[in-house]
Structure formats: C-alpha cells, structure tokens
C-alpha cells in the first residue's frame, strides 16, 4: 500500500484518481480548495479510512506552505499534480491580456513545481519517489498544428519544460518525474463532446504511473502509454 497525494480532487480527473486509488486500497491525501463544494469527495471520505482530505489553493504560496507544515513527517510515495485550469477560452492574437494569462501560468506551471518543491522532504521519505504532473498534448510544441489557445498551450509547455529540469536535477536521488496527457476527457474542462470518460483516462494514467521507472523519467506520455513529442 502506497501513499498518493492528488491535487484538484473536488471534481473531474482528480476526483476520479481519488476514487480509483482508495478503491484499490492505497492511502490517499486528496487536496481541494476550501471554498468549493466537496460533496462527492465527502462521500468517499465518509466511507474510506484510507482517505485524508486537506485544503490547498494551488495558486497561493501561503496555502502551499501551510500544507507542507501540516504534512511534516508524513511520507508520500507518489505526488499527482492534477489541479489545472483552461483560462479564458476565446482569446486569440489581437485580444490577449496579461493578467488572465499570468493567472493560468501560475496555476498550471508555477504552482505544481512549488508544490513538488514543498513536498520534497515527504517524497524523500517515501519509497515510490514518483512525481507526476498532469499536462496536456496542447502543451506539445511539435504537435501544435491548430495554433491559438496561447494561454493554455503556453502554460502546459512551460510546465513540461520545468518538469524536464526536475527530472534531471532529481535523477541522482532515483526520483521519476513525468508529464502525462489524460486524453480529451469528459469533465467540466473537456466538455461533453470529449472522446473518453474520466474512468478510462484515469485507469490508463494509473497503469502508466505504476509502470514508469528511472529510464522513463523526463518523459511525456499519454494515458494509453504512447510517447508524445515535445
Ligand atoms: N479534461 C480534459 O480533456 C483535459 C485534457 C488535457 C489535460 N487536462 C488536464 O487535466 C487536469 C484535470 O483537468 P479536469 O478535466 O479534471 O478539469 P476540471 O474538471 O475543470 O477540474 C479542475 C480541478 O482543478 C482544481 N483547481 C483549479 N484551480 C485550482 C486552484 N487554484 N487551486 C486548487 N484547485 C484548483 C479544480 O478545483 P475547484 O473545483 O475548486 O475549481 C478542480 O478540482 C488539468 O491539469 C487539466 O489541464 C484535462
């Protein structure tokens, strides 16, 4: 039984990660913002002793620091940085603006790396030593044929670049750091026309997370294990 920490667990892929992980008997620390409804997560919490729920606003340095203090001394095997946002949908060249863009950069790139940095002592105590970051194929520069989506694409490309550095810097400690594309998934973000459901996406990503080892560190994988070009 390993300990997983999943961010953004109030709904969508984060909630599904928690559902599948507690179901297979892992210890799970699920984080979500305090000001949102946690009803489905509460339901899981009521029925699973292996689930801890903690508050984390990923875009707030103080909230990250508080989580770090609350978890002091607790080993974590696998960190799944899942929380993310799409940001303003319709912006194209001509009407981009900085504040909204910076907010998405903070949530999608800066926050996951700061969370990993804060929880490194916990991850060093764990045996799993896996750092997982949920990115998007839209962050692939090689795959970008559609253009547009400046805000979301750039936030995920930046995340990918930072995780690559993390994989190099932590290789000496046997950490495995990877970015995972969940597919186009039916969640609030993916919308109802998306190609797969959250159960399919998360069961695929968990298969990838379970099997990745040192040689895969610094890799960019889809939920079905396919390698995605940078
Ligand atoms: N769905 C797709 O097709 C798709 C495709 C590629 C990549 N992804 C990536 O997969 C991840 C999960 O996406 P999803 O589809 O599950 O999205 P979602 O349904 O919109 O859920 C997003 C989750 O992130 C949390 N979150 C957002 N901003 C936060 C903040 N500042 N602090 C704390 N939590 C925050 C949300 O919490 P609240 O409930 O409090 O807002 C929610 O739990 C994201 O990183 C996303 O970019 C999704």
What can be said about this structure in brief?
40% of the residues lie in helices and 14% in strands.
Q: What's the helix count?
A: 6
CATH C-level = Alpha Beta
Unreliable segments of 5+ consecutive residues = none
Q: Tell me the strand percentage band.
A: 5-15%
Indicate the structural class. alpha/beta
CATH superfamily: NAD(P)-binding Rossmann-like Domain
**CATH-assigned fold name:** Rossmann fold
Helix fraction bin: 40-55%
For the sheet with most strands, the description reads:
7 strands, parallel
Q: What is the H/E order?
A: EHEHEHEHEHEHE
How would you sum up the global shape?
globular
Q: Spatial order of the strands in the main sheet?
A: 3-2-1-4-5-6-7
* Count of domains: 1
Gap from first CA to last CA: 33 Å
Nearest-integer average pLDDT: 95
Explain the layout of strands and helices.
Layout: E1 3-6, H1 12-23, E2 27-32, H2 39-47, E3 51-55, H3 61-70, E4 78-81, H4 98-125, E5 130-134, H5 150-169, E6 176-181, H6 198-211, E7 220-222
Parallel strand pairs: 1-2, 1-4, 2-3, 4-5, 5-6, 6-7
Helix pairs in contact: 1-6, 3-4, 4-5
Bound molecules: NADP nicotinamide-adenine-dinucleotide phosphate (NAP).
Residues 8, 10-14, 32-33, 36, 56-59, 82-85, 107, 134, 136, 181-182, 184-185, 187-190, 194 line the site of NADP nicotinamide-adenine-dinucleotide phosphate.
